[in-house]
Amino acid sequence: xxxxxxxxxLLLVDDEVSNLCLLQNxxxxxxxxxxxMLTDSxxxxxxxxxxxxxxxxxxxxxxxxxxxxIMQQLGKRAPDAEFIPILxxxxxxxxxxxxxxxxxxxxxxxTKPFDTSEAIMRIRNxxxxxxxxxxxxxxxxxxxxKVAERTQELREAQRQIVAQxxxxxxxxxxxxxxxxxxxxxxxxxxxxxxxxxxxxMRSNPEIVQEFLTIMNTAGRDASHVVGRLRDSYRPREDSxxxxxxxxxxxxxxxxxxxxxxWKDQALASGRVISxxxxxxxxxxxxxxxxELREVATNLIFNAVDAMPxxxxxxxxxxxxxxxxxxxxxxxxxxxxxxxxxxxxEPFFSTKGEKGTGLGLSMVFGIIxxxxxxxxxxxxxxxxxxFRIRLPxxxxxxxxxxxxxxxxxxxxxxxxxxxEPVNRDILSKYLTSDGHSVVACxxxxxxxxxxxxxxxxxxxxxxxxxxxxxxxxxADVRQIRLSQPIILVTGFSDPTCASGETPEHVxxxxxxxxxQSELRRAVAEACAPEGAASAPPAARVSPSGxxxxxxVSPALSKPSAPVDPPRAAPLQSNSPEGDLALRTVILPFPKxxxxxxxxxxxxxxxxxxxxxxxxxxxxx
Length: 619
Fold this sequence. Notes:
Blueprint: E1 9-13, H1 17-30, E2 34-38, H2 44-51, E3 55-59, H3 67-75, E4 86-90, H4 95-104, E5 108-111, H5 116-197, H6 199-202, H7 205-231, E6 243-245, H8 247-257, H9 259-268, E7 273-279, E8 285-287, H10 289-305, E9 311-320, E10 323-330, H11 337-342, H12 359-369, E11 373-379, E12 383-391, E13 412-416, H13 420-432, E14 436-440, H14 443-452, E15 457-461, H15 469-479, E16 485-489, E17 507-510, H16 515-525, E18 539-540, E19 568-569, E20 580-585, H17 599-609
Parallel strand pairs: 1-2, 1-3, 3-4, 4-5, 7-9, 13-14, 13-15, 15-16, 16-17, 17-18
Antiparallel strand pairs: 6-8, 9-10, 10-12, 11-12, 11-20, 19-20
């Protein structure tokens, strides 16, 4: 027996005392000791509340409150109320009475006069039912506790997985940034060491000019990488500015920039790799020269990695209708169909730990932003050709001609920066233009000098110990409201990230600052009141391109997230038959400028940023 007779509690309700005494005697002989009896049915609910019976034995026909009414009211109790089995005693053995009792909530029926053995079995069965119901309730409670504990464990595991994925994505992104920075540093360090070690080359002005030009270009491309890295944690601006670009010149510049990789490193590993040009007379395209150099650099490096035994890389351009076609062809190992179909996916790499899987996805993203197409032809064992189609004519932003300073007199400039190299470069920029300079290492020293003598212009760094550049500007404007101030920043600060000029400063420049941009900013900040001036440049990008705020909205190109492309094989006329694989990546439709995102969309933009094309190594 599941339910112990010594602990089971039974409540007997009957207006006939003789029936109650009979039932009590039967139950006592069976071993039940917890028994209470009622002759007034109106006390049933109070007694149930106090006694908490395991079984209710209930007569149907009673004065004041019959058994039907008691069962109906018990059925209306709260849904979470504990189930109590009910054994009905009735002298009415008609089918109608039985159906009515069962419908009202009776668990079982016992007809008067009843058989003792039958009564004992029905009571035992109902008590066992009650015991099973309590066991089920306890098991459910236990399961709910375990589910809650397990849910908490799963949430904690999910948080850990999300944190690990974020760290992995950050590691991948950092690896791509390191990769692109090393590319730039290779050119800068390599050519500078050649000049430092070879006096004969230093005596040749043409070679020095060539090497310095290459190093300057590499440095500007590195600054562009920093700009895109800032974009990964700062909201992107509403548009990209495209300028006229000579694609042939881009390719001619990239060849010497990547020479340490395709020539020097290849020779050191016993490989001979040559770069050949097949450049046609093509029109200009509109685009971002820094991004297009990144595309060319990544495709060349990808080709070098695909030629373990050496070979040749051909850079080819031609015009096809309204498009400019640009090809990077190698004689390497080629790609299988699976690799070819997935090579543009972010984080897909065939290089193991040596690759980040972001290089070709970055290439696709840049070309998509330029409204172009990427085609991939590959023959296993023979090589791969990346073919890029770019529109030859687009709405091109034409910057206003650089305005010379309307102030012919030399300026007295206060420079504030805690970094000695930055102070020295800015000082040399300004003194070479005929200005006089006073340099301070912090904002406190600058305030003392400002109180001691007047300055035509203040150029201050933003992030400095003790007092920031914006705090310095606010204090200066308390003394002289019209004081021209230029803020220089090397990172995306919330006060500067919106693209608008912060309060108390005239202009914001992003590091590194080219001399031409500083010269333009000085002319803008110190322009006499009422003089005609160029459109205000609230921010200058690290690569030297005008900020989006300078461009008419009609000519802007809204940013849009880039979905991972799907590569579709096309028919090939190659004599190799099925071994010749060709992929065409079609451009996405021109995106519609998105509405202001809600909070949920803004949050998913931090995980998307990681998927946006960025500086990376090729698969």
